[in-house]
Amino acid sequence: MAKTPVARGDARGAPGAEAGAKPPAALVLLCCLGAFMAFLDSTIVNVAFPNIAETFDDSDLPTLSWVLNGYNVVIAALLLPAGRAADRLGCRRSFAAGLVLFTLASAVCGAANSAELLIGARVVQAVGAAILIPTSLALLMPMFPMARRLVAITLWSAAAALAAGIGPGLGGILAEHWTWRAVFLVNIPIGVLALWASRRLTEQRDRSGPTPDILGVVLLAASLGLIALGLVKGPDWEWESARTLGALAAGALLLVAVALRSARHPAPVIELDLLRSRNALGGNLGSMLFSVTFFAVILNNILFLTTYWHWSLITAGLATTPPPLATAVVARPAARLAEKFGDLPVVVAGCLIYIGGTLLLFWGGGKDPDFVRHWLPGAAVMGTGAGLVWPVLGGVALAGVEPARLATASAANSAFRQLGAVLGTALAVSIVTSSAGDPLGGARNTWWLSISFAASVAVLAALTIRRTEASAAP
C-alpha cells in the first residue's frame, strides 16, 4: 500500500509495538491466514481443472482457462489500489470485507452450474483476495517493532508459500474423494472463522493518502485480459489472424498507457518509482519472469500427469506437491546463503538448479509412469532451485526500501508475480491447445518454455543485481 497506517504513524512518532514485545500469536496467525487463503486458491484449483473441464464439456480449454487466469488478472490489477483504498477506509474493515467477498464468492463457485457463472464468481473471489493480500500484511506489521518488520514479512511470505505448497495435494484429495466443487467450498468454514476472529484486530486508517487510480485498474485489467486472450485463443484463431494480433497489440498498447498514467498519477496502479534502482528492477521483473515459468509448469504438470500418465487427480495433486514444498523448505536457508555469498550467485545458482530439474522432468516424462524414479527427482530439484530464487529476488526487490514503504514494495512485488502467473497460465494453455493429441509433446514444449524463462531470469539478475560482498562467516 502506498502509505501503511503504522508506517506513517512511525514517521510522526506514534507508538507501535514496543521493542522486545511479543505479538499476539492468534492475531499473527489470523493475518497469515488471510494471505494463506488468497494464495491457496491460486494453486488448489489447478488440480481440479481436468474435472471442471469434464463437467463443463460444452466449453473449450481456452474458455475454461479463465477460471484460473481471471483470478490472476484481477489480483494483479487490484493489489496496490486495494491496499490504498484500505488505508483510507480502514485496514481491519477492509480485511473483513475481503473475507466476506472471498467466502461468498467461494460458495457461488462451488454451486456454479455453468462455466460463465464459475468464471464470474472467480473474478469476485479474486477481488476479495486482492483486498486480503495487502490488508493482512498491513495489519500484521504493526504487531512487530520496527526493527523486526522483516520478520513479519517473512512469516507472511512463508504462509503464502505454504499455501502454494499444499494446494495441489489438497485439491487432488478434495476433487478425487468428493468433487471439484469442494476446492471452493472448503473456503467457507475458514472464511467464517477468520471473519469472527477479525473483530480482535486493531483498526488502522490513514485518510490523508491520494485516491487510488480506478481508471488505471480498469486499463491494467483490460490489458492483461487482452494479452491472455490472444495467447490462449491463438491456436484456435491462428497466430497470424487479425483477432489474435489485434488482441495482443491492444493489450500491449493498453499496458503502455498504464505505464504512462502510472508515471503521472499520485496513487498509480503500478509503482514505477520502485523500479528506479537496478536491484529493484531486477528483483521485481525477475519475480515476474520466474512466476511465468512456475505457474506454467504447475498447470502443465497436472495436465500431463492426468492425460499422458493417466494418474488420478489425487495422485497427480500429490505428485505436484514436492516442488512448492521444497521451495518453502529451502527459502530460509536461501536467505542465509544470500547474506553470506551475495544475492547474485544464489539467484543464478537457483536458476541453473531449476533448469536441471526441468531437464530431469523432460527425460522422466517419456519413461514409464514411476513417481520415485522418473518424477520425484526432477520435481524436487526444481523446487530446490525455486526456493533459492523466490526469496532472494523478493529480498532484492525490498532492499533499500524505507520502512514506511515496505508494505507498498511487498504488494508491488506480489503484483509482479501475479502478472507472471497470468502470462504463464496463458502460455501453458496455448501450448497444450496447440499440441492437442500429443500430451507428451505439449508437456515438453512447456518445459522448454520453463527453461528459457529461468535462463532469462539468470541473465536479468546478472545485468541488474549489484554484486555485494559476501558477509563474513559467523
Automatic annotation (TrEMBL):
Stretches that traverse the bilayer: 27-49, 61-82, 94-113, 119-141, 153-174, 180-202, 214-232, 244-260, 281-303, 309-331, 343-363, 375-398, 419-435, 447-465
Protein localization: Cell membrane
UniProt KW keywords: Antibiotic resistance, Membrane, Transmembrane, Transmembrane helix
Name under which the protein is recorded: Transmembrane transport protein
Membrane topology: Multi-pass membrane protein
UniProt keyword Isomerase present: no
Region (Disordered): 1-20
Organism: Streptomyces albus (strain ATCC 21838 / DSM 41398 / FERM P-419 / JCM 4703 / NBRC 107858)
SUPFAM superfamilies linked: MFS general substrate transporter (SSF103473)
Origin superkingdom: Bacteria
Matching InterPro entries: MFS (IPR011701), MFS_dom (IPR020846), MFS_trans_sf (IPR036259)
Any single GO BP term: response to antibiotic
Pfam families the record matches: MFS_1
Residue span, Major facilitator superfamily (MFS) profile domain: 27-469
GO cellular component, one term: plasma membrane
GO molecular function: transmembrane transporter activity
